[in-house]
């Protein structure tokens, strides 16, 4: 730890956050990059383990994706999705609001947009996703202003919510869903359900067409049973085999093209394919798939030592890309980082994921899994997990809707509170 | 190292920064335990029963009943089946040691 480097760090921190007393901790510096579900959870867990942590996050306010489908359907205000970083600061974590422009895995430092460098002994990266604007012909960033993806919560969520509220009765809505892997596997189907709920209750002559680039999806039987029961006239699902793959869009004419047909939409939500956020590629931790291979015990990158990747950006094996997974992975990763920095061998972990979805207000379903490292990846623990039962009584659906809301309050309090 | 760690913890305490749970740091969470708070949060946010500080025997008994399917549940049966009896007991013992909310 050289004098000038340390001064540079403190220079960066000055005025942005008070350097914590633990900054002098001789056991090393941990930097966490990305203050979403994965990164903010990691920073807290590392801090709890007694390590000195600096969290780097571009935005001063985080806008959470879970429950943003409810915002789109007008069931919840966008304000309920926003969280600040005061809670983390109060807990004693140094939070630096800056865009990271590069990572030097050899020299172990993060370059920030103001030109300063933040040295680390270990880096935890949870930068989330990038939307691939090169994947669907016609669908670029400008097109997203006309045909919102709303797959990063914020202005896009508001845009889609407004467009849906303004939709004339009788207009066709198109929702396009990418192939795996992508952020939140059941998310598009929850969105389809809640859009259909809006149509059924407020625009009864309208219809939603879901164009899917795959044939099977998360909680499929439960979603399809609910759609048949609740939205028989308002939701049409087109799988890959029936021509569901979107091959091009034209925002000028509001046309969505597939191999077999062309749909003119009054409203189109296009969820494009994704990859790890650009900083992962810049750091050299993303492979040719665009995602980051990791060791399933420590979450350390298979490509660059000293960098641990959690959350949507990592290749989580059987674990889906969810806020629940990101939080669980962050805690396991933090324990492993603390062990490694203290010269201990990290224990083999087990992790849980659960994703709740609402198919209508008061009607919740879930998918759960328990995971462990096997053959170098995170694999399902056999005999555990699965979805809510198909024939569960309405009482259980109501309970799961309430649990979904409770989960959102719990996890956001755990991470940002 | 130990001294530094103690100093660091002391500094934390003096600064009044976040009440670190008694078991933080030295007592590592057994496999799976850190995932439970995704729902059973430290803050006791409504619907999920808080687990921190609950007697280990209660937690272990509930997990065994969920694992066998004897106790009906919306989600716990699916989760409990992912842990052996020994793992469940270790998680229960760990949770008992956590400061109650
Ligand atoms: C509609 C929708 C519904 C969802 N519902 C659920 C749900 O019900 N349950 C669930 O578990 N999950 C849900 N998810 C998934 C969940 O939102 C993600 O899995 C989760 O946000 C992943 O966390 P993360 O930390 O990997 O990434 P993010 O939450 O995206 O955080 C990444 C952070 O890194 C920052 N960052 C990136 N690059 C840089 C840089 N270069 N410099 C500085 N900062 C940077 C970003 O600003 C961002 O704050 C949903 C997602 C969507 C889209």
Automatic annotation (TrEMBL), chain A:
Which residue numbers delimit the FAD/NAD(P)-binding domain? 29-143
Q: Where is the Sulfide dehydrogenase [flavocytochrome c] flavoprotein chain central domain?
A: 157-272
Q: Which residues form the Flavocytochrome c sulphide dehydrogenase flavin-binding domain?
A: 348-416
PROSITE patterns according to UniProt: TAT (PS51318)
Keywords attached to this Swiss-Prot or TrEMBL record, sorted alphabetically, are: FAD, Flavoprotein
Which InterPro entries does the entry link to?
FAD/NAD-bd_sf (IPR036188), FAD/NAD-binding_dom (IPR023753), FAD/NAD-linked_Rdtase_dimer_sf (IPR016156), FCSD_central (IPR049386), FlavoCytC_S_DH_flav-bd (IPR015323), FlavoCytC_S_DH_flav-bd_sf (IPR037092), SQRD (IPR052541), TAT_signal (IPR006311)
Note whether Flavoprotein occurs among the keywords: yes
Tell me if Chaperone is a UniProt keyword of this record.
no
Q: What is the name of this protein?
A: Sulfide dehydrogenase [flavocytochrome c] flavoprotein chain
Species per Swiss-Prot/TrEMBL record: Methylobacterium isbiliense
Q: What is the lineage of its organism?
A: Bacteria, Pseudomonadati, Pseudomonadota, Alphaproteobacteria, Hyphomicrobiales
Automatic annotation (TrEMBL), chain B:
Q: Which Pfam families match?
A: Cytochrome_CBB3
Does the keyword Magnesium feature in the UniProt annotation? no
The answer on whether this UniProt entry bears the keyword Heme reads yes
The alphabetical list of record keywords is:
Electron transport, Heme, Iron, Metal-binding, Signal, Transport
The stretch of residues making up the signal peptide is 1-24
User: Which PROSITE patterns does the UniProt entry name for this protein?
Assistant: CYTC
**InterPro entries, alphabetized:** Cyt_c-like_dom, Cyt_c-like_dom_sf, Cytochrome_c_Oxidase_Subunit
Tell me the ranges covered by the Cytochrome c domain, including all copies: 20-99
**Which PANTHER family does this one have?**
CBB3-TYPE CYTOCHROME C OXIDASE SUBUNIT FIXP, CYTOCHROME C4
Protein name, entry field: Cytochrome c domain-containing protein
* Organism this protein belongs to: Methylobacterium isbiliense
The top of its lineage is: Bacteria, Pseudomonadati, Pseudomonadota, Alphaproteobacteria, Hyphomicrobiales
């Amino acid at each position: 730890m050289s004098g000038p480097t340390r001064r540079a760090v403190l220079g960066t921190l000055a005025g942005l956050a008070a350097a914590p007393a633990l900054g002098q901790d001789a056991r090393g510096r941990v930097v966490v990059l990305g203050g979403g579900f994965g990164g903010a959870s990691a920073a807290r867990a590392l801090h709890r383990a007694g390590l000195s942590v600096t969290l780097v996050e571009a935005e001063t306010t985080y806008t959470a994706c879970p429950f943003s489908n409810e915002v789109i359907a007008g069931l919840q205000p966008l304000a309920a999705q926003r969280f600040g970083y005061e809670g983390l600061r109060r807990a004693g974590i140094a939070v630096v609001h800056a865009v990271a422009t590069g990572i030097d895995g050899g020299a172990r430092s993060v370059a920030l947009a103001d030109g300063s460098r933040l040295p680390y002994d270990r880096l935890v990266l949870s930068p989330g996703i990038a939307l691939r604007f090169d994947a669907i012909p016609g669908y670029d960033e400008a097109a997203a202003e006309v045909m919102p993806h709303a797959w990063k919560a914020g202005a896009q969520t508001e845009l889609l919510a407004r467009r849906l509220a303004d939709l004339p009765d009788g207009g066709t809505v198109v929702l396009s869903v990418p192939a795996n892997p992508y952020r939140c596997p059941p998310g598009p189907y929850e969105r389809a359900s809640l859009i259909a709920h809006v149509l059924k209750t407020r625009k009864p002559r309208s219809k939603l067409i879901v164009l899917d680039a795959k044939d099977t999806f998360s909680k499929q039987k439960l979603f399809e049973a609910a759609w048949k029961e609740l939205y028989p006239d308002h939701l049409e699902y087109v799988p890959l085999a029936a021509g569901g793959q979107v091959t091009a869009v034209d925002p000028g004419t509001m046309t969505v093209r597939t191999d077999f047909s062309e749909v003119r939409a009054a409203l189109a939500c296009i969820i494009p394919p994704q990859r790890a956020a650009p900083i992962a590629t810049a750091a050299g931790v993303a492979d040719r798939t665009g995602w980051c291979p990791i060791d399933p015990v420590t979450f350390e990158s298979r490509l660059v030592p000293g960098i641990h990747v959690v959350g949507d950006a990592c290749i989580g094996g059987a674990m889906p890309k969810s806020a629940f997974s990101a939080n669980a992975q962050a805690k396991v990763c933090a324990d492993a980082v603390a062990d490694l920095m203290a010269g201990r061998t990290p224990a083999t972990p087990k992790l849980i994921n659960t994703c709740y979805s609402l198919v209508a207000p008061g009607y919740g379903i879930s998918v759960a899994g328990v995971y462990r490292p096997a053959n170098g990846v995170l694999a399902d623990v056999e005999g555990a997990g699965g979805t809510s039962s198909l024939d569960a009584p309405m009482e259980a659906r109501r309970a799961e809707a309430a649990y979904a809301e409770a989960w959102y309050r719990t996890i956001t309090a755990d991470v940002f509170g | 190292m130990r001294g530094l760690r103690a100093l660091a913890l002391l500094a934390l305490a003096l600064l009044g920064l976040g009440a670190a749970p008694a078991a933080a740091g030295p007592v590592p969470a057994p496999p799976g335990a850190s995932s439970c708070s995704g729902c059973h949060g430290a803050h006791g946010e409504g619907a999920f029963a808080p687990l921190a500080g609950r007697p280990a025997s209660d937690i272990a008994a509930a997990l065994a009943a969920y694992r066998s399917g004897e106790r009906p549940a919306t989600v716990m049966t699916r989760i409990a089946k992912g842990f052996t009896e020994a793992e469940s007991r270790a998680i229960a013992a760990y949770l008992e040691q956590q400061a109650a909310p």
